[in-house]
Amino acid sequence: MAHRFVALRKDGKKTYLHDEAGRKVREVIWGDYLTVKRALDDGRLEIDWAARSPDKRRTLYIAAEDTVERRPLEIVFVDVGQGDGAVLISPETGKDERIIIIDAGKEGNMRAFLNARFKSYRGFNFHAAVVTHPDNDHYLGFQALFSDHKIGFRTVYHNGLVERAVTGTWAKLGGEPVPDPASGVSYVTALAVDKADLTRLFGALPANTRYEFPKLMRAALQNPKIKTLRMLSTEHAKLEGGVAWMPDFAPSNRRGYTIRVLGPVVEKGPGGKPALRRLKSYGETKNGHSVLLRLQYGQFSVLFGGDLNEPAEKFLLQHYTGRATFPKPGTPDHDAMVAEAQKTFRSEVMKSCHHGSEKVTDAFLAAVNPAAFIISSGDQEGHVHPRPDLLGRLGRYGRGDAPVILSTELQRSSRPLEDGAQVQKLLDRIDALATALSPEALDAIKLDVKELARSNVEVYGAIYLKTDGERLMTAFRIETGSELEKWFSFRYAFNAKGELVRTD
How do residues 204-255 score in pLDDT, each as one tens digit? Predict the structure, then answer.
């Protein structure tokens, strides 16, 4: 059987699969995979739908003009709860396909998504995993993946700041930051650059260690299908023309799209050693030096903002505009800095920094100036993300009259009135009455009660981004549960004047 992909209709209308009588059966969106059984004389294609699930297989139909041979580049911002997790799927297929997981959240949502999306991913080799920084709501979801020796990664990237299995704040990163007498800046110099560094630090850990990040690194080192682990930064990258690129995604790779590495910014510390500067506190330092990536495909770009914060953003803006100090907001120097920084950071879509924290700068938001913000956050945390006092600022510094703000937390739907603790109380009461019930009756009642405690999520809040370099779409699932009304989307293109416009 041949395969094709759902096209993006130029008229902005939705696309459906039909049954043999021509009735709409299911809404599909740009890039959905189609297994083609045959082409019909009336311009339709006969589709073997859900061919990977034999129990749900059926024959459906789609107009051939609503399909294309090449799929768009796709990024899925997975609903991982509180944390970050995204999957980048390249437009190529077969041996040229590249799938990159950028953070994996804290719990099991990323693994569940991969299992559902790539039904045969056990035994699959992903191109890369990117651990943007050592906060467990970004990396702990990788534990189950790295520990499974049927799942491989060509490369596991990290930001060089790896937490050791020790107590003490800065000791976790190899010791107190070292001051540079010449500049007065303090630097973290104990960077883990390559696999040899990680092997020295984590290769001989006790099996029962309680430290999460060392346990993650040990799992990666012990997985024979993970080929290498290395730091990814402005110095530890593929350097072309004075610019840092993610290996395999530089302009010279001629893929039609690139991934630039904008952070962490490595400097020369004391003694000329590669180092990352201290950004106020311990937490601001490891978060502020997140792996910062900017994807460019044709006219569209996407910035992955990690957990950047105020001191990190000010440092980055100064670094990329060559300024020794940060200008006062509202001054001509400040406006000139933002305008210059846009040459580096301006992007059509931004994965918002730090889950929608308010501790970001207006200058950085204005430098990125995206038309769409994507916030990855959870609804059972004390950080109040996304912060209400941030959302207005995003609208103010976004591009166009109505910038779009998408949030995995806000796009998720759930059922009300479910109480797992109350269900457990009922189960305990049933156990107390067990002697008066037959084993069969007892099991039946317990099953009924446990059904009440199933996951209360009806629709997970994953946000899908797709682009072919000329058009871009963001989409999320509608809460109706209808097969005919599954998706809500925003579509973008550039007009003849070079202005970004909505086309939905």
Answer: 887 778 899 999 999 999 999 999 999 999 999 999 999 999 999 999 999 9
Query: Could you give the CA distance from residue 309 to residue 254 in angstroms, rounded to a whole number?
Result: 34
* Cβ–Cβ under 8 Å, residues 367 and 325: no
Show the tokens assigned to 155.
């490369």
Question: What element of type H or E holds 221?
Answer: helix 212-222
Q: Where are the alpha helices (DSSP H) in 79-135?
A: 109-117
Amino acid at 438: S
Q: How confident is the model at residue 22 (pLDDT cuts 50, 70, 90)?
A: very high
What pTM was computed for the model? 0.90
- Residue 198: closest CA among 217, 175, 171, 172: 217
List Cβ neighbours of 410 (8 Å cut-off, separation of 6 or more).
375, 386, 461
- In this structure, the number of other CB atoms found within 10 A of the CB of residue 132 comes to 27
Q: Which residues contact 454 (CB under 8 A, 6 or more apart)?
A: none
Q: What are 7's two structure tokens?
A: 């096209």
The pair of structure tokens assigned to 49 is: 């739908």
75 vs 85: CA distance, rounded Å: 10
Burial classification of residue 456, based on how many CB atoms lie within 10 Å of its CB (0-12 exposed, 13-18 middle, 19 or more buried): middle
CA atoms of 49 and 41, how far apart (whole Å) = 20
Q: Rounded to an integer, what is the distance from CA 361 to the centroid of its chain?
A: 22
Please state whether the peptide bond connecting residue 264 to the residue before it is cis, i.e. omega within 30 degrees of 0.
yes
DSSP 289: T
DSSP symbol at 11? T
- The pLDDT tens digits for 415-446 are 555 666 777 777 777 777 777 777 777 777 77
Chain centroid offset of residue 137 CA: 12
- Cα 474 from Cα 76, distance rounded (Å): 10
Provide CB contacts within 8 A for 132, sequence distance 6+. Answer: 84, 102, 103, 138, 159, 290, 291, 304, 306, 307
Given this model, what pLDDT does residue 131 score? 98
Model confidence at 121: pLDDT above 60: no
